[in-house]
Amino acid sequence: MSTLIKGRRIAADRWTMVHAAGELPADGDVIVPLSSWNTERERLGTRAGRVGVLLRPEDDPAELGAYLSHLALVAIEFPHFTDGRGYSTARLLRERLGYRGELRAVGDVGRDQLFYLSRVGFDAFALREGERPEQALGAFEDFSEAYQTSVDRLQPLFRRRGGRNPGATGASPEGVAR
Amino acid sequence: MYEYDDIDQRIVDERVRQFRDQTRRYLAGALSEDDFRPQRLQNGLYVQRHSPMLRVAIPYGLLSSRQLRRLAHIARRYDRGYGHFSTRQNIQFNWPRLEDAPDILAELADVGMHAIQTSGNCIRNVTTDHFAGIAPDEIVDSFVWCEVVRQWSTLHPEFAYLPRKFKIAISGAAYDRAATFVHDIGLQAVRADNGAVGFRVIVGGGLGRTPMIGHVIREFLPWPDLLTYLEAIVRVYNRYGRRDNKYKARIKILVKERTPAAFTAEVEDEWTHLRGGPATLTDEEVARIESRFTRPVYERLARDDAGYAGAVASDPAFAAWTRRNVHTHKVPGYAAVSISLKKTGLPPGDATAEQMDAVAALSDSYSFGELRVSHEQNLILADVRRSALHALWQELRALGLATPNIGLLTNIIACPGGDFCSLANAKSIPVAEAIQARFDDLDYLFEIGELDLNISGCMNSCSHHHVGHIGILGVDKNGEEWYQIVIGGHQGATRDGEAAAIGKVIGPSFARAEVPDVVERLIDVYLAHRDSEHERFVDTVGRIGVEPFKRSVYGSREYDTAIGSRLEAEALA
Predict the structure, then answer these.
(1) B465: domain CATH number?
(2) Structural domain count, chain B
């Protein structure tokens, strides 16, 4: 059983990952693959318990489109942490598709991925086996600032500086860059 | 120099702290080799043949004398007293200890330097024209745009685990000295008729195993849209680039498999969502970054200097050096100077700690305390008064740094090769040395004229042999080192001219000892066929084709037997 970090603390996991339709428990919250969601959406809707969807790296989050507001959880799988497709999937879910529910990173999720994952919109992390959760919590503090706009900082650093430019020393001629 | 503000500095400091912790966990056995590898690579640390290799970023090749002194100090204290300037405007140390890497990074951070994303499957150090800001053909100062891109790409959370490495080059001048057509993304500054600045966007160029010339996917991208458009390109690549085969994972393969038109449509579609968003650049931001660059305060000087002209007339050795190593400057009375790191007998691009300290001192005396690193692995003092050139040359000569061979055959671009690199199939440095020794007559070298000769020790093509006028590639055949030769490549030039060209293989490969002979034969054919001394080697190859060169190299009697059996063997294999 992997440890779950949610809201930057260690949390209990109430969700069950169900990979095959036959394994669907009678009640309780379940996470099903996108393929199951696509084929058995109605049956899933009649169960007691909430439904979350698991996206694989190659899945297009736009397929969840209109249903996103009804989903309590979307999980994105990282079969290996070096497969970075899930980072784009997460930003698309948050920034383009307007998903507001829990976004969980599952699979090969380790301490050294948490900072970037949290920047692109993940708020829950199912740590892989062997990770030390208390140490992992420190990862969110790896950096105190970031240049780019992303889910955690809607404005890039240059729009948040508020025009202040302390310590500028350059005697730059006008317009060398433009 | 771009001067860090407190936030730039804090991010680099925090990166050091993060890596120190990762290294500690790795050494304590809490982080596996597989988990540590991508982390250390994104901090420039390879595991090499002999020890780790640390690749330090010199963003867009710009360096202060203070930083160069720190590099010299690192070479002395943590390495064996030298460093290797690479073809991507970085410096590599070949002998540090892993345990020392966090301390080295802290020493770098102290002078506003880092090794962030100098390796790994992420956006690498952005490169540019080594004459940025001073070139007479300048359209914009590309350093400013490089810094904009550096900040955007540094610790980008979405693009740290791309399918493969990702290299961006920016040219701000009419003449493309940044090889924009052989990068994952090449950006060429363009000025529209109404004076507005934008970028021509080139995607999918690259060398390596499958060399390709990039495609122009947008003729004019207004500058405020630069980052949103880059984000669209890299996102399409991150989502759809191949991850099943490392040799097909670069963006050039995606562009080819989808077709450039379809790929462009996908990028443009992605961009419709990002365009005008928060990452859209503002006047204030570009002005802010521009203002953080220190600028030389030039004196008002006459274009010509009588003392300089006199020295050129009276001192032939100085005159030879000025012909090759002195370059025009947009400010009257100033010139840029190339310091060749290609002296015969020394590994191309290597500099000792003493040389680094000496060059730092020269840059303080002669060039406002700044210098540049070129992708040809030389150092450049960009702002030297013409009246001081003779004095500078004398000092350089005393240091063994006045080799007058910029643009000539002996200005060989070479990777560290099999002597150091664990990826290499063959050695590069001894081959470079043998060729330099063969062409040791300066008059002859000048007669041959401009010629780029590049030597890569393996298919990864770190020395860009595909775009050398003569390219030499080390290959492994049954555990033996052989060298394949390509001719006719070039890295592009004028905006309206041909983009860049991939050289053609002339035939079966050669043993190391044969290589200088082969180069000599190629040169003989060129000298016999060129229509004037203005026609360069690469132009002659373009005009008469590869055949006459092949005939000369393979057709002669002494080669026949060896080549015949070798061709047979290669046909069977």
Answers:
(1) 3.30.413.10
(2) 4
Which secondary structure element, helix H or strand E, spans residue B234, and what is its range? helix B226-240
Kindly state whether residues B236 and B161 are assigned to the same domain. Answer: yes
- Whether B144 has its CB under 8 Å from any CB of chain A: the answer is yes
Q: How many CB pairs under 8 A join A and B?
A: 144
Please list the ranges in chain A whose pLDDT falls under 50.
166-173
DSSP-assigned beta bridge partners for residue B456? B473
CB contact under 8 A, B5 and A155: no
Residue B412 near residue B348, CB atoms below 8 Å: yes
B389 domain residue, yes or no? yes
Whole-number percent of chain B with pLDDT over 90: 88
Most B CBs within 10 A among A55, A81, A87, hence the mutation to make, goes to A87
Q: Are B88 and B167 in contact (CB under 8 A)?
A: yes
Residues of A in contact with B230 (CB under 8 A): none
CATH number for B366: 3.90.480.20
Q: Is A49 on the interface with B (CB under 8 A)?
A: no
Residue type, B469: H
pTM for this prediction: 0.93
Whether B1 is in a domain gets the answer: no
| Angle value at C-alpha B371, between B437 and B387, nearest 5 degrees | 85
Same domain as B377, residue B445 = no
User: Residue length, chain A?
Assistant: 178
Cβ atoms of residues B479 and B356 within 8 Å: no
Our count of domains for chain A comes to 1
Domain that includes residue B550, residue range:
413-572
Query: Hey, which residues does B334 pair with through a beta bridge?
Result: B385
Q: Are residues B452 and B489 in the same domain?
A: yes
Strands (E), B143-287: 168-171, 185-191, 197-203, 215-222
B120 in any annotated domain: no
Q: Which two tokens stand for residue B562?
A: 């060896």
| Residue A33 counted as domain residue | yes
Tell me the residue range of the domain where A96 lies: 4-157
Tokens of A118: 């949290």
pLDDT digits (tens, 9 = 90+) for B120-158: 999 999 999 999 999 999 999 999 999 999 999 999 999
Contact B120/B38 with Cβ under 8 angstroms? yes
Residue B301 per-residue DSSP state: -
Domain co-membership, B256 together with B145: yes
